[in-house]
Amino acid sequence: MYNESIINKFLEPKNAGRIKNADANGSAKNEKCGDVLKIFIAVENDRIVDAKFKAFGSPLTICAADITCEKMIGLTTEEVLGIKNSDIEAEILVADEDREKLRQSILAEETIASVMAEYNKRQAKMNK
Amino acid sequence: MSISSHKIHGPKGVGALFVKKGVKITPIIVGGEQERGLRAGTYNTPSIVGFGKACEMIMFNYIMDNRRTKSNRDYFTNKIMQEIPNCHVNGHVHQRLPGIVSISFECIDGEALMCLLDMNGICVSTGPACSTGSIEPSHVLMALGMTVEGAKSTVRFSFDPSNTREEIDIAVKKIKDCVERLRNLSPLRASKDKDKE
Predict the structure, then answer these.
(1) CA separation (Å) from B145 to B17, B43, B109, B127, B141?
(2) Domain residue extents for chain B
(3) How many Cα neighbours within 13 Å face the side chain of B8?
(4) What is the DSSP letter of B144?
(5) Catalytic residue at B130?
(6) A40 and which of A11, A22, A113, A125 could share a cystine (Cβ 3.0–4.6 Å)?
(7) N-term to C-term CA, chain A
C-alpha cells in the first residue's frame, strides 16, 4: 500500500507523544477529511529544543506529522514559521494516485502557526 | 441485479448480471455480439468457469454455511464490544448480511487501524475498492448520519464459514492492542477524556 519508509515512520514515529509542561501546544484540522494534528513544543533561548505530536489520521498523516516535528527541532521560534507543507511533501514518496491524499494529510503550516501563536501569547503574558 | 464472483470465493474480475424480462439496457462496451450484444469482447473463460464452480459450491451447503458465518460474526462482534471500550456497530442489529460487520472505533482512523492489522496478519477493509485513494469518508456512512470523524473511524470485518473461534479470539486480541496503540497517539482521545472529566 505504502512504501517502507512511510510504514516505518507510521509504526515507529520518533516524535509521537506529548511534552509534559510544554511551552506551547497548538492544533489544526482538515475539515474535509477530518485529520487532526496537535503539536507540543519545548523552547530554550528562543530555539525549539523538542517537538512532539498527536495525530488522528492515516499512516500518511502520522508520517507527515513526524517529519514536521523533526524539521521544527533546532529552529528558532521565527525560523520555524518558514516551514511549508511543500517541504514535508518533498520528503515523502508516494504513488501518483496517493499524491492528493498526501497533500490533504499534511497539516504542518496550520499547526505550526497555531502552536507559535499560542507560544507568543504566553510569552507576551509572562513579559507583562 | 449484479453479482461479483469474488464475494463467494470465485475469481476476481468476473460477475453476473440479472436483467428482468422486459428491461432494456444499453451496452457500455460495444463492437462485438458476445453476451447477446450487451458486452463486447472475448469471454474470460477460466474466470467464468471458476465463478460457475464457486456458485456450485456455495449452493451445496449455503444454509449451514450462512448459519456458521453469522454465528462467528456475532461471536466476534460481542467480544469486540465487551473488550474494547468506545466502539459502535453500524447498521441494523438483526437485518444484515451474515458475513460482514462494520464497527467504528472512536478517536482512531480506520485506515491507520487497517495498516496496523495488516502488519499483524489480519486483513480488513475501510471501504469499497471504488473509493481507494479518496480522502473523503464513506458517503454511505455519512448518509447514516455519522460525523466525518465517526465515518473515518470505521472498519469493515468480513467472515466466512471456514473461520474458527480460535482465529477470532486471536483477531480480537490483536485488534484491541492496535486500537489502544492508535488511541494513545490520538489528540481526539485527550479531548474526549477532558469532556468526561
Answers:
(1) 31, 42, 18, 17, 7
(2) 2-196
(3) 21
(4) T
(5) yes
(6) A22
(7) 52
pLDDT score of B121? 95
Here the ipTM equals 0.91
Cell numbers 471456514: residue: B162
Cα–Cα distance, B112 to B155 (Å, whole number): 10
Q: What's the topology of domain A4-127?
A: Sufe protein. Chain: A (3.90.1010)
Closest CA to A55 of A41, A72, A38, A79: A38
Cβ contacts of A10 on chain B, cutoff 8 Å: 112, 115
> How many Å apart are CA A3 and CA B18, to the nearest integer?
41
pLDDT digits (tens, 9 = 90+) for B5-27: 998 899 999 999 999 999 999 98
Q: How close is the nearest chain B Cα to the Cα of A124, in Å?
A: 26
Q: Over the stretch B149-168, which tens digit does the pLDDT of each residue have?
A: 899 999 999 998 899 999 99
* B184, pLDDT greater than 80: yes
- Given the residues B55, B87, B130, B178, select the one marked as catalytic: B130
State the pLDDT at residue B93.
81
- Stretch among A10-24, A27-41, B117-131, B160-174 having the lowest mean pLDDT: B117-131
Q: Could you tell me the residue ranges of all domains in chain A?
A: 4-127
Q: Which residue has the cell 466476534?
A: B76
CB crowding B28-45: b at 16 or more within 10 Å, else e: eeeeeeeeeeeeeeeeee
DSSP E strand boundaries for B9-151? 15-17, 87-90, 100-105
Give the CATH number of domain B2-196: 3.90.1150.10
Contact B137 A56 (CB under 8 A): no
